[in-house]
Automatic annotation (TrEMBL):
It holds the Pfam family Virul_fac_BrkB. The lineage of its organism: Bacteria, Pseudomonadati, Pseudomonadota, Alphaproteobacteria, Sphingomonadales. The chain crosses the membrane at residues 40-62, 102-121, 142-165, 185-206, 218-239, 259-283. The keyword Cell membrane applies. It is a multi-pass membrane protein. This is Inner membrane protein YihY, formerly thought to be RNase BN. It is found in: Cell membrane. Keywords: Cell membrane, Membrane, Transmembrane, Transmembrane helix. GO terms for cellular component: plasma membrane.
Length: 298
């Protein structure tokens, strides 16, 4: 009878887990979500151009300047058209003007500024898991520098693969028209897949060490990707039908639309962080409950 009651309690707890996870995510987002999303929106604008300087410099160092430009174009494809139009020209001008001593200085400033963005995401993740950072700031900064450089190198490798896939697509269009539709659809999913992989690696590397292995990171990355792509597709429609930013903000309308987009993306980061934390903590609670039961039975 006791075993039946224990099994029933375990089954009931498992059935309640989705609701428990949802409550934890909602509480975390409601508590600090808007603060973190606003901070990330501001830092996104602040660090976006420095990050592209790093991409351009790294690509040039490896002799892959074309891949660097493709990486930037692919990023712009994951933003609403109005945001992409606002950012494309200044980014191009920035990359053309960075050379010599100015480029070296720009890279140093870009690394430090972009590391601040990474540290903000790390702080958000640590708060979601209920941890406090214990490493000295210089160690955290060095780790952030490594994450930035590593992500840029992986990005360039990814776009090299995408370039190869584009060649395969062209081959299919010319010689294999029967299978070209499915192949083209797969190639066009490249930016979304690259975004998901980048977010997964970011979540994995910045999650507290105690929860880095053995706990899933893909739900948070998937949730953030969904919010990001949803904002890219729905924000233009919303602004066209329910908002008049040109009247409210005048010449600053484009900047405000960009800030709104990055705010929604920041909120996606918050949701992803709290989703991963809630799943890990709920699973940990179940493990601790089972261990307590085993000790009592023993």
């Amino acid at each position: 009878m006791g075993e039946f009651q224990d099994s029933a309690r375990v089954a009931a707890r498992s059935a309640r887990r989705p609701l428990t996870v949802l409550k934890r995510v909602a509480a975390g987002v409601f508590d600090t979500g808007m603060i973190h999303a606003g901070n990330l929106a501001f830092l996104s604008l602040l660090t976006l151009f420095p990050f592209f300087v790093i991409i351009g410099a790294t690509a040039g160092f490896f002799g892959r300047s074309g891949d660097g430009l493709r990486a930037i174009r692919t990023f712009l494809e994951t933003t609403p058209p109005r945001v992409a139009d606002l950012l494309a020209e200044p980014i191009g001008a920035l990359l053309r003007s960075t050379s010599g001593t100015f480029l070296t200085f720009s890279i140093l400033v870009a690394l430090w500024t972009t590391a601040s963005y990474v540290e903000t995401i790390r702080l958000m993740l640590y708060n979601a898991y209920g941890f406090k950072a214990v490493r000295p700031i210089w160690q955290r900064r060095l780790l952030s520098f490594g994450i930035i450089i590593g992500s840029v190198v992986l990005m360039l490798l990814a776009f090299t693969v995408q370039f190869i896939l584009a060649g395969v697509e062209e081959f299919a269009l010319r010689l294999l028209p029967g299978v070209s539709t499915a192949l083209i659809s797969s190639v066009r999913l490249g930016p979304i897949a690259a975004l998901f992989v980048a977010l997964y690696l970011l979540f994995f590397s910045l999650t507290p060490r105690e929860y880095r292995a053995g706990w899933p990171k893909w739900p948070g990355a998937l949730a953030t990707t969904a919010v990001w792509i949803g904002a890219t597709n729905l924000l233009p429609w919303f602004l066209a039908n329910f908002s008049n930013t040109d009247r409210f903000y005048g010449p600053l309308a484009g900047v405000m639309v960009t800030l709104i987009f990055f705010f929604v993306v920041g909120l996606g980061f918050v949701i992803g962080a709290h989703l991963n934390a809630a799943l890990a903590l709920a699973a940990q609670d179940d493990v601790e409950t089972m261990e307590t039961k085993t000790e009592k039975d023993g």
